[in-house]
Amino acid sequence: MGIAALILWLLTAVGGFVLLGTWIAKGGTRQPGASHLPVPVLFGHFALAVAGLVVWIVYLALDNDALAWIAFALLIPVALLGFVMLLRWLPVYRARTQTAVTTNPEPAEKHFPLAVVGGHGVLAVTTVVLVLLTALGVGGN
After folding, report:
1. Model pLDDT, residue 50
2. Does any domain span residue 100?
3. Quick one: three-class SS letters along the chain?
4. Residue 19 is part of which domain span?
5. 33 burial class (0-12, 13-18, 19+ CB within 10 angstroms)?
6. What is the gyration radius of the CA atoms in the chain, in angstroms?
7. How many domains does the chain have?
8. 117 inside domain
9. Model pLDDT, residue 117
């Protein structure tokens, strides 16, 4: 189950990279006032997810149960930050079908593909569950 969690974590990361790349390419860092996603939340989510992934890989290599729990503990704030970003992105997604003319710059997250956002979320939840089950010793490694 640990390897399955790793594979899903990597797939989740791919979706996250697509979203982060889109956000940066569409001006998220150049126009932070236009974005609904606070830069510290976005990069905190990314940094903690990467840290957790590294800990998970080390756990798989060393089979140290404490590392599995540390990786799971890192996933809790990652998930919370991700949920905060989802809640802040939803109004942007809903408003993107409206064609109102505005002088304000568009938020970069307006360009997020719905399928990538949904897939990233589903994979993330599944990863958290698999990491927890592995840490609990369910299903073996």
Report:
1. 98
2. no
3. CHHHHHHHHHHHHHHHHHHHHHHHHCCCCCCCCCCCCCHHHHHHHHHHHHHHHHHHHHHHHHCCHHHHHHHHHHHHHHHHHHHHHHHHHHHHHHHCCCCCCCCCCCCHHHHCCHHHHHHHHHHHHHHHHHHHHHHCCCCCC
4. 2-94+106-135
5. exposed
6. 17
7. 1
8. yes
9. 97
pLDDT in the model for residue 48? 98
Q: Are 60 and 2 in contact (CB under 8 A)?
A: yes
The residue whose two tokens read 């990491």 is 131
Q: Is residue 114 part of a domain?
A: yes
Q: Which tokens is 108 given?
A: 């970069």
Domain membership flag for residue 77:
yes
Nearest CA to 105 out of 42, 26, 39 is that of 26
| Number of residues that make up the chain | 141
In the chain, which stretches have pLDDT less than 70? 97-103, 140-141
